[in-house]
Automatic annotation (TrEMBL):
It comes from Apiospora hydei. Residues 31-64 form the Zn(2)-C6 fungal-type domain. Pfam families: Zn_clus (PF00172). The keyword Nucleus applies. The keyword Protein transport does not apply. Residues 1-12 have a biased composition (Low complexity). It comes from the Eukaryota. This is Zn(2)-C6 fungal-type domain-containing protein. Transmembrane segments: none annotated.
Length: 394
């Protein structure tokens, strides 16, 4: 007696995941959980946007209060934040060492262990008032992204013009900038601070390294064991994103001269990468911090505004830093058709230009002209006499 062949079973359809439950909220409320936790205003560029301006800048998950809060983490879908951050740190090493973008570790390749407790990005982002322990955790997570010595030597062997480390963030007059007082060796500039340094000081080095990587010529040939440009550009982007998540998006960390400098470098990096709106937003944040410290009034000379006055004072003049912030704001606002952050236009007076180098004089006059154009554009109607005045200056 033969048995009948088994009948094929119909495939079992998996049930669709349930839609997130909507919560009852007050009529007119339009804000996300992340902004509520940070106690900041939640704004959207347009009513159709699903991500608010704050979460877009911080690169965090934007969940409306209409839905249940998922804990405020900024991890990827289905992956715990601690594991995600640890994987990010390891992936940064793979990108620069092995030239790979995938998350699978190559067979036999070395890998540094990352402490998921210290590198847990979500917990750090949820800390509104970081303590010393939290500072240590941020510093550890930042240092994990720094390349090994042999990797850094490989990066610095690529012919890159050293000015990429200074462009847009000049903190002293050009007469000082081109003097022998400024360090000229990229290796001396790109030296990681000690492990007990403030997170902002470590973040500054990471941003400078990203600027160096961004400055690699597009026609660079991957020879002598060096990687392709895409690998370096990807690594630079990861460095900036890490600093943005852990440092520059935390207002309490950037409230210093060095913090403003980090914001300026990040804005410069975004501008050079063609992300002008994000560059404008970050530079405007730097201006706000500078105003809170009194830079616009020339009242920031006290040591309390510095994290490391001994190292920072020789390269940053607060008054000159404010000048660079305003000039950058004028340029980005003019490019984007947005209003300027300040009407201050005293940088090209006869007194201000008296001891300036030619290049600095030129930049100051361009900045003032840009400010006048922005002021003219904000007024309805065309003032021909005002336009002729700007034209004469140019």
């Amino acid at each position: 007696m033969t048995s009948s062949p088994a009948q094929p079973t119909a495939p079992v359809e998996e049930p669709e995941p349930p839609l997130p439950k909507r919560r009852k909220i007050r009529k007119g409320t339009q804000s996300c959980w992340e902004c509520k936790r940070r106690k900041v205003r939640c704004t959207y560029a347009s009513p159709a946007d699903s991500i608010c301006d704050g979460c877009r800048s911080r690169r965090t998950k934007c969940v409306s209060q209409e839905f249940d809060d998922d804990g405020g983490t900024a991890q990827g879908a289905g992956q715990p934040a601690c594991q995600s951050t640890a994987a990010t740190a390891r992936d940064l090493q793979r990108v620069i060492v092995h030239g790979q973008k995938d998350t699978a570790r190559p067979k036999g390749s070395p890998e540094r262990e990352t402490n998921p407790t210290n590198a847990c990005m979500a917990q750090l982002l949820l800390s509104t008032t970081p303590s010393g322990n939290h500072h240590d955790a941020v510093s550890h997570a930042l240092r994990e992204t720094w390349p090994r010595d042999e990797e850094l030597d490989l990066i610095l062997s690529i012919p890159v013009r050293g000015y990429v480390l200074y462009h847009g963030i000049v903190g002293k007059p050009y007469s000082h900038f081109f003097s022998d007082e400024m360090p000229t060796s990229p290796k001396a500039i790109l030296r990681l601070p000690s492990s007990n340094s403030h997170p902002v000081l470590i973040a500054r080095k990471l941003l400078l390294l990203a600027s160096w990587l961004q400055g690699i010529p597009s026609g660079h040939n991957a020879t002598n064991g060096s990687r392709s440009n895409d690998v370096y550009y990807s690594y630079a982007s990861r460095l900036v994103n890490t600093v943005s998540r852990l440092v520059t998006s935390a207002d309490e960390l950037v409230s210093s001269i060095e913090g403003i400098e980090c914001l300026m470098i990040e804005s410069m990096y975004l501008n050079n990468g063609g992300h002008l709106r994000r560059a404008w937003f970050i530079n405007r944040k730097a201006m706000a911090v500078a105003q809170m410290l009194g830079l616009h009034q020339g009242a920031s000379s006290s040591a309390t505004s510095y994290l490391d006055a001994v190292a920072t004072r020789p390269r940053i003049d607060p008054d000159y830093m404010w000048l660079r912030l305003v000039l950058t704001d004028h340029y980005l606002s003019l490019m984007l058709g947005l209003p300027q952050g300040t009407l201050e236009n005293v940088f090209a007076t006869t007194k201000a230009l008296a001891d300036c180098a030619d290049l600095e004089r030129f930049e100051r006059m361009l900045g003032v002209a840009a400010g006048l154009i922005l002021q003219r554009n904000s007024v309805k109607g065309l003032d021909l006499a005002y336009t002729r005045r700007i034209d004469k200056m140019l």
